[in-house]
Design a protein that fits this description.
The chain has 14 helices and 20 strands. The chain has a seven-stranded mixed sheet with strand order 12-13-14-11-10-16-17, sandwiched between helices. It has a six-stranded mixed sheet with strand order 7-6-5-8-9-19, sandwiched between helices. Strands 3-4-20 form a three-stranded antiparallel sheet, with no helix packed on it.
Length: 458
Amino acid sequence: MSMKVTNPATGVVEAEYPLDTPEQVEEKLALAQKAHLTLRQMSFAERGKLMHAAADLMESEVESTATMVTREMGKPIAQSRAEVLKCAKNMRYYADNAEAMLSDWSLDDPAKVGASEAGSMWQPLGVVLAVMPWNYPLWQVMRFAAPALMAGNTGVLKHASNVPESALYLHSLFTRAGFPEGAFGTLMIPAASVAGVIDDWRIRATTLTGSEPAGRAVAERSGKMLKPSVQELGGSDPFIVTPSADMGRAVDVAVTARINNNGQSCIAGKRFLVFEEVYDQFLEKFVAKMQSLVMGDPMDDATQLGPLATASGLRDVKELVDDAKAKGARVLCGGEAPEGSGYFYPATVIDQITPDMRLTMEETFGPVASVYRVSSREEAVKIANQTTFGLSSAVWTTDVEEEAYFVRELEAGAVFVNGMTISYPELPFGGIKDSGFGRELSDAGIKEFCNLKTVWKA
């Protein structure tokens, strides 16, 4: 068995990498445990110096690394460059802020608990297993890796099988930057082998970004072994446009929110809930901009929409759209995969969606926008909250009271007002319901894989 690089723009297999043997997996786990014992004894300043070196190295390799990402999963090359640079930014953020985030805390009046001193401290857990997806093959990993290493943990990565070169790049990055060998390593294993790794005594926690079924499997196994887990799963995020919205800006951002990463993003705006007073105006402008997007070779800087990452992903999107069309939905642009090689699907806008259509409840992982006409903020919230997902959301309004209503009532891990959902190192990231649990990024993310130890002195 092996992991293959299939170029999504052509459908051609361009490289193949062997899976690890059981002996190689054991060696990597042993190295990760040994590296943890070294890393946890280092000061934050020492770890921060290494993290800055890794960020500098990654930034210096932006062109070759971005090309690798685009070849593996098909996003436009400009977006691949941005992903590499965002990783470097995240690494520097944690290098500079981890110590403050994990600083010791002391009770102001320890006598209240019968002590001369009392407080708490944060300590690393050990080796963390990360199971990661292909859609942001570097950024999804770095959201976890940078804070975990800065806290003194080490990591082993089971990456998606279609991005082995990204996985191997990350395997070498931290060691090349000076981290102890094994501080971060890649396990070249199939999904069927993940449960056995979770069971290993050296794995102290897990984190997964991916599909709901994968999340359930990893969470179940982690729970069985009493190991903490962070789960960042799918989303079907609402993008609400009210009559008071800046319409031109809302349309521009709506297009970006839907087609970024070729529409393959858990936090993408997927369901566009537009008030009937501005529905026709929004729809006309939105469809025109979606139709004007340049779809083509993702290595071309002029390309705005590249191929979907896999043949199965293309099939899934086609099935969802075909189901909606068969049940009476109106396709305003796109809706048909072009002839020829590669996994391309055009920017598509659909409205007149009914509850019996799969689009209503399922996540569409591709450049397909579902548009709903709503008559009130109550109806908008009802539709927004009707799916089992709760990752993020966006609302466009200049009415302060209306803004407060949506922030309060939307069932999601985040609400972005007059903008699109973006993950920032400074802000916590994660969802509720079937979108997962736990948080990445900010101080919340680094603390997920630390032990909060209470210290009491007589």
